[in-house]
Write a structure and sequence with these properties.
- This protein is α+β, with helices and mostly antiparallel strands.
- It has two domains: 129 residues, no CATH class; 402 residues.
- 28% of the residues lie in helices and 19% in strands.
- The strands form five sheets. The chain has a six-stranded mixed β-sheet with strand order 7-6-5-10-17-18, with helices on both faces. Strands 1, 2, 3 and 4 form a four-stranded antiparallel β-sheet that branches.
- A hairpin with a 6-residue loop joins strand 2 and strand 3.
- Helix 1 packs antiparallel against helix 2 and helix 5 packs parallel to helix 8.
């Protein structure tokens, strides 16, 4: 065995090397500790600055112009920053962030866009680097956010089911009053003089109270939490059916007329029930869809069996007075996206919801309301064209419905009753390009086909608003439950908003897990919020306003 003999001169060398290495190892360890602490402090500072910039942008709803809004925005940024990065945070010193380090300015290209820049600095102490006479290090952070002006049309459901459990018509019973209060709280969250808000309300007919205007607080009414005012929202009365598709199109048409492509264009739809009414034009460009009109004569005083109703020129209006969508599309600054619908044989067709045992149809209702308190006011009143017993408007006799050979394949706004792409109700039966409604169907079959067609038209109205080449709207929806006997159609409302998410409580699944739902990745994704009762409508409208203001950044 070989014996290792240690020389006397090597004794203690390990200790000497160990002591010498400490002079290198300790600074290296200290540097890593100090750098880690520096990066952690930087992350906290950056988070505080980012939050401050977002808070400032969120505050740009306070004031009519950029200069006025900047005051509140800067102060909100300072408050937010120091609530998340107080003086002495993590032993930092000389923190510098004040209103003077917050800049609010207009975009040089887009007049509807404002920016917020926030800068901050602080000194971070060192621990081990003090050996090298480095006692602290200054770090800086910059945050950036922006806020687009919002152009919003509120589309509010004022159908009769909003009165439950009170009987329609109603002003404040059931959900009608809470809905109006919540809508005013919504308008109070936006900047008068910068943002635009308009109002459309609907039952079986639609009334446009106001196009989107910057004076929406005085025009519509508002409640900002400290002050409030009355306006058009307060005049709403609930009664009648649910013509959702027409209301969405008229609401979107108002956005289109306002014509601010660089702004955040939004439709906010509130509804408590299923669509059950469409405005339909019985002239298809070649012929009328009548088989044999019961006692109804055209302007040449001829019945269908007597040789009448063969030309557009001899049409008889389904209303006492003519109406053209020119009265909606004519107001500038921009023409409407809807084609003008000429005066003619068209009107609202209403039928009850699924929970109603006896199915019937109400024809000739006026689809364009003259106020926000109308509902089923135009029931079969046209001279010489009485389809239902006087005063009832309800057709329960299928023989009377056999006067119609078909119903149109779109409503008067152009919304398809069976879209080629992803129809919500693919089982809708067509007769060529028309909705099947002839004498081979009994009244229950006609009801089901028409009911599903109304759902499809409503879904198509939102789709067209999101995909228009000039103004793409983002759709937000509040579905109100607990009012009528029919359950809320969550899938339809998800589709309107193009929202992928399901209910947190599992009330309805995410869109991907529901074969009846569809999400379009290339279209704006909005938000669907479910309100389980009228008592929480204010909370839901506030949630929606926060979502809109966040996405407007």
């Amino acid at each position: 065995m070989k014996q290792v003999v240690q020389r006397r001169g090597e004794r203690g060398i390990v200790m000497i090397l160990g002591v010498l290495s400490l002079a290198v190892v300790i600074p290296m360890v200290g540097l890593s500790v100090d750098v880690g602490y520096l990066y952690a402090s930087k992350a906290r500072l950056q988070a505080a600055v980012d939050g401050a910039s977002l808070a400032a942008a969120r505050s740009l709803n306070l004031g009519a112009n950029t200069a006025a809004q900047a005051v509140a925005a800067k102060q909100n940024a300072v408050n937010w920053f120091y609530s998340n990065f107080p003086p002495g945070n993590w032993s930092t010193t000389a923190t510098n962030m004040s209103s003077s380090t917050v800049q609010v300015y207009d975009d040089m290209v887009n007049p509807n866009l404002r920016h917020v820049d926030v800068t901050a600095s602080t000194r971070v102490p060192t621990f081990f680097m003090k050996w090298l006479h480095v006692n602290s290090t200054t770090i800086n952070a910059v945050g950036f956010s922006s806020r687009r002006d919002a152009v919003i049309t509120l589309v509010l459901d004022r159908s009769g089911s909003m009165c439950a459990p009170g009987a329609p018509p109603c002003n404040n019973a059931g959900a009608c009053g809470p809905m109006k209060d919540a809508a005013k709280l919504f308008t109070g969250q936006f900047a008068a003089g910068r943002d635009y808000i308009g109002l459309v309300s609907f039952s079986d007919g639609t009334f446009r109270h106001s196009p989107p205007v910057q004076t929406f607080r005085t025009t519509l009414g508002y409640n900002d939490g400290s002050t409030s005012g009355t306006g058009a929202i307060d005049t709403i009365q609930c009664q009648g059916g649910t013509g959702t598709a027409e209301a969405i199109s008229i609401g979107y048409n108002a956005l289109y007329q306002r014509w601010l492509p660089g702004a955040f264009n939004v439709l906010v739809i509130e509804t408590d029930g299923l669509p059950n009414t469409m405005a339909m034009n019985m002239w298809d460009g070649a012929a009328y869809g009548f088989a044999n009109i019961n006692g109804c004569r055209d302007n040449a005083n001829l019945s269908k069996t007597g040789g009448g109703w063969t030309t557009y020129a001899n049409r008889r209006l389904w209303k006492n007075t003519g109406y053209s969508l020119n009265t909606i599309t004519a107001n500038t600054p921009h023409v409407g996206f809807m084609p003008d619908i000429p005066t003619g044989t068209w009107g609202g067709i209403y039928t009850p919801d699924p929970a109603t045992a006896n199915k019937f149809f109400t024809l000739l209702a006026d689809p364009i309301d003259t106020s926000g308190n109308s509902g089923l006011n135009g029931l079969a009143t046209t001279t010489n064209c009485l389809f239902a017993p006087s005063g009832t408007g309800q057709i329960t006799n299928n023989a009377l419905l056999n006067d119609f050979a078909w119903l149109p394949g779109t409503d008067v706004m152009g919304n398809s009753v069976k879209p080629a792409l992803n129809p919500y109700k693919p089982g809708v039966v067509m007769n060529g390009t028309h909705l099947k409604f002839d004498s081979t169907y009994n009244i229950n079959q006609k009801w089901l086909n028409y009911h599903d067609a109304a759902l499809n038209a409503t879904d198509n109205a939102a789709y067209r608003a999101r995909t228009n080449a000039n103004i793409q709207a983002t759709v937000f929806v509040i579905g109100l439950g607990g009012q009528g006997a029919d359950p809320t159609d969550h899938t339809l409302l998800q589709r309107l908003a193009n929202d992928t998410r399901g209910d947190i409580g599992g009330l309805y699944p995410a869109c991907a897990a529901n074969p009846s739902c569809v999400h379009y990745d290339t279209q704006a994704t909005g938000t669907y919020i479910y309100s389980s009762s009228a008592s929480v409508l204010k909370q839901k409208f506030l949630e929606l306003s926060s979502q809109i203001l966040r996405l407007a950044q």
